[in-house]
Amino acid sequence: MNYLKTTKSREIISILSKNAPNGLIDILSASKALMIDPKKVSIRLSALSKRGWVQRVRRGLYYILPLEAKPGQETMMDDPFILADQLFKEYYIGGWSAAEYWMLTDQIFNSVFIVTTENLRAKIISLFGYTFNIFRVASIDNTGLKKVWRKNIQIQISTPERMIADSLRNPSMCGGIRTLASIISEYDKKADKNYDILIEIVKKIGNGATWKRLGYIFEELKLNDHVSKVAEKEISSGIVKLDPSITSRGDFIKKWGMWANASLEYD
After folding, report:
1. For 30, which DSSP code?
2. Is the Cα torsion angle 220, 222, 226, 229 positive or negative in sign?
3. For residue 151, which of 69, 91, 85 has the smallest C-alpha distance?
4. Residue 5: how many CA atoms within 13 Å on its side-chain side?
5. Could you give the strand order of the β-sheet that contains 251-253, starting from the edge strand earlier in sequence?
6. Number of neighbouring beta carbons within 10 Å of residue 45
7. In whole angstroms, what is the distance from residue 40 CA to residue 205 CA?
8. How far apart are CA 251 and CA 257, in angstroms?
9. How many CA atoms are closer than 13 Å to the CA of 237, on its beta-carbon side?
10. How far is CA 241 from the centre of its chain?
11. DSSP label of 159
12. What is the rounded CA–CA span in Å between residue 118 and residue 138?
């Protein structure tokens, strides 16, 4: 039965909605739901998009508006994490978004931080009222990544330890070194903190700068002494900045081979 010839747009939308988990459907799934050729479905969905019945998320992926919505009415998905899972093939939610998820910061960020291998031109993507901040990497090491449920979808997110390790290597991932220092302080208060895991993850994915920042922050904040001692043994030659985003050098800390160019005090 060819639904495109025998039903109206609202009936087609009803069929697609029943086959669209979280409102999202791709060409192949729509083809199976409507029982017609994928090429014809693509043309039809494009037409429905122009008429405001559906919204194009990316090539081959559409968001089916709720039946109660009027054509062309602006809408928003309930969960940006679920949208991220549909937008990116190889990714994980990290940085400040992971810090928020694990309740390690009360700072409000206006975007979702995505680490992905996809070669995207844009570093910031806005869709359905959400903003995604894209951090591209050549490959993703699964060390310290975890699957969590959001409704009926499993989302990949960095654990607190992986998020800290990532941010020690690239402080911009959590909004800068001051925010990172605050996150680490909150992590230290957690009953389930595990510095052995943190050290192992840094050994796996870190570099010389990671160890320098780790040791310096733990020493300055007077946190776990074992961590700073391990970091001191692991540091390599070369000089780095505590916060690479700040142009000034600040004071030189010989022990850590570092320009301490930012305060760790968080307002």
Report:
1. H
2. positive
3. 85
4. 5
5. 240-241, 258-260, 251-253
6. 25
7. 46
8. 11
9. 0
10. 25
11. -
12. 8
Q: Calculate the alpha carbon distances from 29 to 1, 51, 76, 112 in Å.
A: 17, 21, 22, 27
What is d(CA 175, CA 134) in angstroms, rounded to the nearest whole number? 13
Q: Which residues pair with 131 in a beta bridge?
A: 126
Per-residue pLDDT of the chain (267 residues; tens, 9 = 90+): 444 444 567 788 888 888 877 678 889 988 998 998 999 889 888 888 888 888 887 788 888 876 655 555 555 567 899 889 888 889 999 999 999 999 999 998 999 999 999 888 789 988 878 899 999 999 999 999 999 998 888 999 999 999 999 999 999 999 999 999 999 999 999 999 999 999 999 999 999 999 999 999 999 999 999 999 999 999 999 999 999 999 999 999 999 999 999 999 865
Q: pTM of the prediction?
A: 0.80
Q: How far apart are CA 177 and CA 171, in angstroms?
A: 5
State the first-to-last Cα distance of the chain, in angstroms, to the nearest integer: 64
Can you list the domains of the chain with their CATH numbers?
3-64 (1.10.10.10), 80-260 (no CATH)
C-alpha distances (whole Å) from 96 to each of 163, 176, 260, 265 are: 8, 10, 22, 18
| Residue 102 phi, psi dihedral angles, 5° rounding | -90, 10
On the CB side of 190, CA atoms within 13 Å amount to 15
| Residue 220 burial by Cβ neighbours in a 10 Å radius (0-12, 13-18, 19+) | middle
Instruction: For residues 67 and 34, give the distance between their C-alpha atoms in angstroms, rounded to a whole number.
Output: 17
Q: Say how far apart CA 110 and CA 96 lie, in whole Å.
A: 10
